[in-house]
Amino acid sequence: MTSNRRFHIAVMPGDGIGPEVIDAALAVLGAATGDGAGFALDFEHLAAGAGAWRDTGTAMSEQTFERAKAADAILLGAMGLPDVRYPDGTEIAPQLDLRFRLGLYAGVRPVRALPGGARPLADPRGADIDLVIVRESTEGLFASRGKGVVEDDRVARDTMVITRETCERLFDASFHLARRRRARGGRGRVTCVDKSNVFASMAFFRRIFDECAARHPDIEAAHHYVDAAALDLVRKPWEFDVMVTENMFGDILSDLTAALVGGMGMAPSADIGDGHGVFQPAHGSAPDIAGRGIANPLAAIQTAAMMLDWLAERHGVEACAEAGRRIDAAVAAVLAAGSPRPADLGGTDGTETVARAVIAAL
Ligand code: ATP
Questions:
Q1: Pocket-testing residue among 83, 257, 283, 345, ligand 1, by greatest number of atoms within 8 A of Cβ
Q2: 98-142 pLDDT, tens per residue?
Q3: How many domains is the chain built from?
Q4: By alpha-carbon position, which residue is closest to atom 2 of ligand 1?
């Protein structure tokens, strides 16, 4: 088959290990989309992040933003460096601006235990962890970013914002995701994670969830308070399917769940809205290991596979979904083989070696 659909991908490698893991992901994408793949990817590299701010005085120029906005998808490494900050002391995080400006309300963070991967917890009956955290990413407590106040050095206030419009889209997307996962063997359940027993905002969040659940009767709807969810994610994580939650809760719980399958180097992530998708591993720029060639590229590689799956669904290009599945299978095969093995999973192999093994497995 010839390449009959071309996708324009904006690539923002960013800071720290961002460029290292993005190089690996691009190499794997290149191998998975060669001649005969049925589609093609055109990459456009764009500078943004703390390094861009240091070099140019702008973390993400308007021109860069417009180029990214015009792309079919955005692939991002990591942004921010602890020693490069705005004059007010806050971190340079243009990736958060992308979420707000492009309306990327659903932060999708899959957590899958793979044979040969790290498993600090195990179900005695052998069930595997295979869940997704859907983190609302444009409001919640993060709506207060840049707007919090400290009064007279005596009291500080940040405000949680929950809107009906965003919740309805978030919950509909979560039920849709559970339905797609069920077609591939998932449980077909969405759990709303909130604190509705204490906060009016969270009771509102749950009420809208229940209204949406009534529109998706084929998918099971469940509830969990966030504190109990933290407990059960350690006690029995294999019982969850899709978990949808407020921004701050999702921020915390998704790091917890990454630890269940080997840490940040194993945690892919996507920020999805109605018109755009930004695909970025859940980890940050990891300055403690940057420049040493030892970052685990598997989160970025699995993130690239998520991008292909999203493009496939959005544009009806099945070959693209197939390429994503092949990448996921290649990652699983490398882990199962036990060698090479990235340093954060107890091995000694570097970023490039691991990426080359994934390409060989393709
Ligand atoms: P952010 O606030 O941007 O999410 P952070 O400072 O909280 O970033 P990370 O940059 O994700 O956190 O790093 C957390 C820890 O995980 C660090 O010790 C880092 O070295 C490690 N880490 C993160 N990503 C990887 C990776 N791909 N491979 C190996 N180790 C990683």
A1: 283
A2: 999 999 999 999 999 988 888 788 888 878 899 999 999 999 999
A3: 2
A4: 284
What is the best residue among 90, 264, 353 to mutate for testing ligand 1's pocket, by most ligand atoms within 8 Å of CB? 264
Q: What is the pLDDT of residues 208-222, one digit of tens each?
A: 999 999 999 999 999
Q: How many residues does the chain have?
A: 362
Same domain (yes/no): 103, 182: no
For ligand 1, whether the C-beta of 76 sits within 6 Å is no
DSSP annotation string for 79-143 = --BTTBB-TTS-B--HHHHHHHHTT--EEEEEEE--TTS--S---TT----EEEEEEE-SSBGGG
User: Same domain, yes or no, for 272 and 329?
Assistant: yes
Which residue has its alpha carbon closest to ligand 1 atom 12? Answer: 284
The residue out of 260, 291, 311 marking a domain boundary is 260
Give the CATH number, domain containing residue 26.
3.40.718.10
**What are the φ/ψ torsions at residue 194 (nearest 5 degrees)?**
-150, -170
- Domain with 278, as residue range(s), is 1-107+266-362
Are 272 and 255 within one domain? no
Is 293's pLDDT higher than 70? yes
**Is the residue at 113 inside a domain?**
no
